[in-house]
């Protein structure tokens, strides 16, 4: 009876903390997996494997509500030019490489000690860079507000972001095509993952880990990702060439990004996926800062990141549902909690942006989440390393399978 009461209290506390983590993560435009796993593992008492499985449900729930809110509620502001939507150009050209890089086979052969040291250094570096980006944007917003008070005219960030997030004319038709392309890519990777397993779940067939069949199926992801990315980039080049003279006036944000080499976003997504798979954290925690560093405006970076993370997390969630995972009902309760919390977080941050006129609040929110993630991951990682050390478990390099 005492165990049951203690277990229930842990679950309730985990739900409360997950709600806060989901609201905070949604406001910053990251998935939140780096916060969910320690909460489920330490507070709720789930094993690391179960916590990882449950976190995929939670990330899917949080990102799904964020994307739906962006597409349904915020779409009403689109025509006024005050609110950007998801940049499907970035998503469709980056998603194959992000899915390819996120294979966690890389993580399994890394020493635990080296793993956490490298992760802390990487996240600390990302925090400083993100904070610097936020300060630059804050100063730019202050200067723009001063010019407006003095009667000057300038193109504000909202208008610039609207140009990035949407296109005129046949935009809806292009978005439908890009969504179909993304779903096709998702399906291809999902079938591969279903065969060989991953993210803590076994495959449909009893394929020997590290056997010839295993590696043949695993390596098949590379030509799929490369071919699909190459085709998409080719189509984007043709599309941009046809529209080059239509945006002579909009030379601020959109032209700046389109002047970048076409391979920038796929390479950035691949590196982000590799790092997230290597460190065992969600791709959104790394992808959002990367997009901000490239020059994507905060609102667009946030919306696009959540959209891309939804594709990654939903793949793992569906795999767990098909292959079976203990505690599906509990996982769905956590997912619903994150679904509601994500909307709350998005409403709060959008209200704060409207009142203050500071889009840079999103950047500072991302920096704050990075700091919180460094602390949570370092503490939970130190606890696990200590437990492994005191119990005599092997802590060195491991096989990739």
Q: Could you explain the architecture of this structure?
A:
- The chain crosses the membrane at residues 51-74, 176-196, 212-233, 262-286, 306-325, 332-353, 359-387.
- It holds the Pfam family TauE.
- It is found in: Membrane.
- The protein is globular, with a radius of gyration of 21 Å.
- The protein has helices at 2-28, 33-43, 48-72, 88-101, 112-149, 157-165, 171-196, 212-219, 221-243, 253-258, 264-279, 284-294, 298-323, 328-356, 360-390.
- The longest helix is centred in the first third of the chain and has 38 residues, at 112-149.
- It has one domain.
- The protein contains 15 helices and no strands.
Largest sheet: none
Number of strands: 0
Q: What percentage of amino acids are in beta strands?
A: under 5%
Task: Please tell me how large the radius of gyration is.
Answer: 21 Å
C-alpha end-to-end distance: 40 Å
Mean pLDDT: 76
Structural class comes to: mainly alpha
Low-confidence stretches: 79-83, 106-111, 153-169, 244-253
Helix and strand sequence? HHHHHHHHHHHHHHH
| Portion in helices | over 70%
Backbone shape: globular
Number of domains: 1
Number of helices: 15
Fold blueprint:
Layout: H1 2-28, H2 33-43, H3 48-72, H4 88-101, H5 112-149, H6 157-165, H7 171-196, H8 212-219, H9 221-243, H10 253-258, H11 264-279, H12 284-294, H13 298-323, H14 328-356, H15 360-390
Helix pairs in contact: 1-2, 1-14, 1-15, 2-3, 2-15, 3-13, 3-14, 4-7, 4-9, 4-11, 4-13, 5-12, 5-15, 7-9, 7-13, 11-12, 12-13, 12-15
């Amino acid at each position: 009876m005492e165990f049951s009461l203690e277990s229930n209290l842990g679950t309730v506390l985990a739900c409360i903390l997950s709600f806060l983590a989901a609201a905070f993560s949604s406001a910053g435009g990251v998935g939140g997996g780096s916060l969910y796993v320690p909460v489920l593992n330490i507070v709720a008492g789930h094993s690391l494997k179960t916590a990882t499985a449950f976190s995929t449900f939670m990330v899917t729930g949080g990102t799904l509500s964020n994307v739906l809110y962006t597409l349904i509620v915020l779409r009403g502001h689109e025509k006024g030019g005050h609110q950007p939507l998801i940049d499907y150009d970035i998503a469709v050209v980056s998603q194959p490489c992000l899915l390819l890089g996120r294979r966690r086979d890389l993580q399994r052969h890394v020493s635990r000690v080296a793993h956490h040291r490298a992760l802390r250094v990487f996240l600390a570096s990302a925090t400083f860079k993100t904070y610097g980006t936020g300060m630059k944007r804050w100063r730019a917003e202050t200067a723009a507000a001063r010019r407006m008070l003095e009667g000057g005219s300038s193109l504000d960030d909202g208008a610039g972001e609207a140009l990035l997030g949407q296109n005129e004319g046949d935009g809806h038709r292009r978005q439908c095509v890009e969504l179909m392309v993304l779903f096709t890519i998702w399906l291809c990777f999902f079938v591969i993952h279903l065969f060989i397993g991953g993210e803590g779940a076994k495959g449909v067939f009893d394929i020997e880990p590290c056997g010839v069949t295993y590696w043949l199926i695993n390596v098949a992801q590379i030509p799929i990702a490369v071919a699909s990315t190459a085709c998409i980039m080719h189509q984007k080049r043709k599309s941009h060439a046809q529209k080059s003279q239509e945006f002579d006036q909009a030379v601020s944000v959109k032209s700046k990004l389109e002047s970048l080499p076409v391979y920038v976003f796929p390479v950035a997504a691949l590196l982000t996926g590799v790092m997230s798979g290597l460190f065992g954290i969600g791709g959104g925690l790394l992808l959002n800062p990367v997009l901000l560093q490239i020059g994507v405006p905060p609102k667009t970076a946030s919306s696009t990141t959540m959209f891309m993370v939804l594709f990654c997390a939903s793949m793992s969630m569906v795999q767990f549902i098909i292959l079976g995972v203990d505690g599906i009902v509990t996982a769905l309760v956590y997912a619903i909690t994150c679904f509601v919390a994500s909307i709350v977080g998005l409403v709060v941050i959008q209200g704060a942006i409207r009142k203050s006129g500071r889009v840079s609040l999103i950047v500072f929110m991302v920096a704050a989440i990075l700091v919180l993630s460094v602390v949570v991951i370092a503490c939970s990682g130190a606890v696990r390393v200590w437990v492994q050390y005191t119990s005599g478990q092997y802590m060195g390099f491991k096989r990739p399978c």
